[in-house]
Write a structure and sequence with these properties.
Elements lengths: L3 H9 L4 E5 H11 L23 E3 L4 H6 L5 E3 L8 E3 L10 E2 L2 E2 L7 H5 L4 H5 L9 H9 E4 L3 H19 L12 H11 L4 E3 L6 E3 L4 H9 L1
Parallel strand pairs: 1-7
Antiparallel strand pairs: 2-4, 3-4, 5-6, 8-9
């Protein structure tokens, strides 16, 4: 008999998911980062990220979240701003706040959870790093972006170019960011504009090959 998680993967792999127009998705994703509102992800019934052995960062300003997470589940986060904590996962790889098939603190879930969007993987051609992220990998493979306009295609090519650049020159990543797939993917979204040039006279946008300093400037902006 197959396990429940295996069945989830088999069912999830049967149907594609519309990810939306690529260029507008990039713009919305970047605008949502770090905000209380977070990303607008049509997750449906998917809870893959809640069950994939992920450590969750919780910032010191997330007071309502910290109040609802038991203190014994909060651990210091080395290398991050003072007061930032990590929440781990249980022996099954599930978030300890994942109860009865859903998030028990959903209205006050961490900002990390609000900003998480597994569409960053198909957008950049990357996959989650670890073998225990199989559920996220399978879910991410289902997304299908729309490329209805030239801008959609241009932005996608720029994101892919930024991804390749950052994989080759990890020193360009912001300080404190490890070259993990999720970090590289988000950095590629943020830096993709450096790989495009808009000609005001003709109104055309074309690809360019920026140097490392230009990419670092785009990441720090």
């Amino acid at each position: 008999m197959k396990s429940a998680s295996t069945l989830d993967v088999l069912v999830a792999d049967q149907q594609d998911l519309p990810a939306g127009p690529f260029s507008s998705w990039v713009d919305r994703t970047l605008a949502a980062q770090g905000t209380r509102i977070g990303a607008d992800v049509p997750c449906g019934s998917c809870t893959a990220c809640c069950r994939s052995s992920k450590f969750i960062h919780i910032g010191p300003d997330e007071t309502e979240t910290l109040r609802r997470v038991p203190r014994e589940l909060q651990f210091a986060a080395p290398g991050l701003p003072a007061g930032t904590v990590l929440m781990g996962y249980d022996e099954h790889g599930q978030c300890p706040m994942f109860v009865d098939g859903g998030c028990s603190i959903y209205e006050h879930r961490p900002r990390t959870c609000r900003n998480y969007d597994c569409r960053i993987f198909p957008a950049t051609g990357l996959s989650p790093d670890d073998d225990d992220r199989a559920l996220i990998t399978e879910q991410a493979r289902r997304w299908r972006f729309d490329f209805r306009s030239a801008l959609d295609r241009q932005k996608h090519e720029a994101v892919l170019a930024a991804t390749d650049f950052l994989l080759e020159q990890t020193a360009s990543l912001p300080a404190g960011q490890a070259p993990r797939s999720s970090s590289v993917a988000m950095a590629a979204l943020k830096a993709h504009g450096a790989f495009l040039e808009h000609d005001e006279a003709s109104g055309e946008t074309r690809p360019v090959s920026p140097d490392a300093e230009t990419v670092r400037a785009a990441l720090s902006g």
